[in-house]
Every structure is written in structure tokens, then in C-alpha cells.
Amino acid sequence: MIRILKIIFAVLPIVPIAAGNLNAQEMETKVPKISVFPVGKENTGFEQYFTGKSWLAPLTANPSLNVPMFNVTFEPGCRNNWHRHTGGQILIAVGGTGYYQERGKAARRLLPGDVVEIAPGVEHWHGAAPDEWFSHIAVECNPATNENTWLERVSDEEYAEAVKR
Ligand code: MN
């Protein structure tokens, strides 16, 4: 009898703790560790310009250095809308597998270490592969005068065609 009671008391506290953890995990998407850089917070500030969820981590803080850099993480299938930057942009792939496409051109598959130089005014989008997470560092070029113009979504048909290769 004592032995049975011991077992019951040993098991009881575990049940509510396990249930609590399960609920917390269901609420938030678990972001896998795919690069050495921080993931930051869910990118709710730009969510209207993205299809799918993304996360944003500022990597620099000193405004006098004047070259803002962010690590952007995309869940599988996530991509931003077609857009252009008046100051241009540099992307450095740091984790997972992604894609970059300029209007009218074939998409480029991106792996860690790949660098993309985006000239001012060129319409493009960037995002993850359909079944893989992706992170790139985004460098905002000519930030004193840069303006971003957000355009239409990359449709499921456009995306499917772009990621075929
Ligand atoms: Mn861009």
C-alpha cells in the first residue's frame, strides 16, 4: 500500500507540468537553429508584405555607423512580396535553403555563404524553399535616402514555378 502511494505521489506532479509545456508549444512556432545568428522576434511589423511567417533580429545598434543589418528567418514556403529598394540591398544567406528572384528572370537558389547584390530599383522577392527554413542577413544600402516600395504578393503559381530548379 505504501509503495503504491509513493508511486502515485511521484507521478502526479508531472502531469500538469507536461500539459502546460504542450500548450505553450502549440501557441508558438518552434524555429529550428539553422545559423549562428539570433532569430529575434516574429516579424509582425512587416507581416502584410509577407506570405507566411518570418522573424527579424537586428544585428547592429549604433546609428552613427549607418549600415543597418538584420537577420531575417523565413518558415518553409514563406516569401516576401515583390518589392524594390531605392538604395539597393545586399543579402547574405546564412542558414537553410532559400530563393531570390528578379522580375523576368529565373529564381536563384540560395545556400549559406551566397551573396546577392540587388541594384537600386530592381523588382524582386526573397524567401525560403517550400520544405526548408531559410535565414539571410539583409543589409540596407544607402539608408539615408533608401525607400522600399512593396508591390503584389508572389502568388502560389509564381512561387511554385520559381522553386522548380
Ligand atoms: Mn529586398
User: How does CATH name the architecture?
Assistant: Sandwich
Instruction: Kindly estimate the percentage of residues that lie in beta strands according to DSSP.
Output: 25-35%
Question: How confident is the prediction overall: mean pLDDT?
Answer: 89
CATH superfamily: Jelly Rolls
Number of strand elements:
13
- Overall geometry: globular
Which ligands appear in the coordinates?
manganese (II) ion
Strand line-up of the largest beta sheet = 1-3-4-12-7-10
| Topology as a string of helices (H) and strands (E) | HHEEEEEEEEEEEEEH
Uncertain regions spanning at least 5 consecutive residues: 7-20
Rg on CA atoms, Å: 21 Å
Counted by DSSP, the helix tally is 3
The percent of residues in helical segments reads 10-25%
Specify the CATH class: Mainly Beta
Largest sheet: 6 strands, antiparallel
In the CATH hierarchy, the third-tier topology is known as: Jelly Rolls
How far is it from the N-terminal to the C-terminal residue, by CA? 67 Å
How many domain modules? 1
Derived from helix and strand composition plus strand pairing, the structural class reads alpha+beta
Explained architecture:
- The strands form four sheets. Strands 1-3-4-12-7-10 form a six-stranded antiparallel sheet, with no helix packed on it.
- It has helices at residues 2-11, 14-27, 156-162, and strands at 41-42, 50-51, 54-58, 69-74, 79-80, 83-85, 89-96, 98-102, 108-110, 115-118, 124-128, 134-140, 148-150.
- Helix content is 19%, strand content 33%.
- It has a single domain, classed as Jelly Rolls.
- The protein has 165 residues and is an alpha+beta fold.
- The chain binds manganese (II) ion (MN).
- The site of manganese (II) ion has 6 residues, from strand 6 and strand 11.
